[in-house]
Amino acid sequence: MLDDTTPQGIEELAVLAEPVRRRLYLHVAAQTEPVSRDEAATALGVGRPLAAHHLDRLVEAGLLAAEYRRRTGRSGPGAGRPAKLYRATSQELRVTLPQRRYEVAAELMATALSQPSGGLETLEDVAHGYGTTLGTEARRRAGPRAGVTKRRTAVASVLRDAGYQPVLRDGEVRLLNCPFHELAQRHRDVTCNMNLAMLRGVLAGAGLPETAARMDPQPGTCCVAIS
Asked: What is the per-residue pLDDT across 35-62, written as a single tens digit (0 to 9) for each?
């Protein structure tokens, strides 16, 4: 049931595999002001057309943003055409293999802490609600008249999108990847119970028995298994 979904950051790193493009990105990212094509070409010692090509490719990838501005501050007739300037975006460059979803855990925990009770039970309730949303998406993918098998397949699809690696093993679904791995190593009880609640929510949202998800930690797998 594994697929070839692109892991976090891979596409961005592929864009930066080209040496000149990577140097251009690092140069622009190090500047406090936007950089023109001419400035970038001069800094790297390459031709302006080559610099323009790679800068625009970085814009397409979302790593740089472009704007047009007259550097002289003049306007009106005779002021010349605005220059195309480039600056780095706030997009982080990270690649995680296998995939992790620490931002999801952070959001769930922050939501739970912002509520009056703010305890572990609240976190589990929040995680279950989030999982139900994912399960609803699985049910949508499966179709309105889908049977149990089709809904299970859709659940596997949604779980892959959520950072899990579901595989069928001995008649049950094992999850080869925990999206919250490092967090679980430091705070196992909190993280695993949150994870279990979320996965039960996924099953409930998909119209499947949520009790099929149970705690069953095994070496090399997520702490939760799905019967």
From this structure: 999 999 999 999 999 999 999 999 998 8
CB within 8 A of 224, min separation 6: which ones? 175, 192, 195, 196, 199, 213, 214, 215, 216
Tokens 């409930």 locate to 204
Q: Which residues is 88 bridged to in the sheet?
A: 64
Report if pTM > 0.70: no
101, 171 Cβ separation under 8 angstroms: no
Contact predicate 100/181, CB 8 Å: yes
The predicted model gives 151-179 an average pLDDT of: 88
97, 165 contact by CB (below 8 A): no
CB 223 within 8 A of CB 176: no
Q: 80 vs 34, 39, 41, 131, 169, CA distance in Å?
A: 18, 17, 21, 56, 67
DSSP-assigned beta bridge partners for residue 167: 174
Look up residue 75 and give its two tokens: 């306007």
- Mean pLDDT (the chain) is 86
Among 166, 174, 168, 162, CA closest to 225: 174
Residue-range domain boundaries for the chain: 17-88, 102-226
Confidence of residue 126 (pLDDT cuts 50, 70, 90): very high
CATH architecture of residue range(s) 17-88: Orthogonal Bundle (1.10)
| Residue pair 180/105 in contact by the 8 Å Cβ criterion | yes
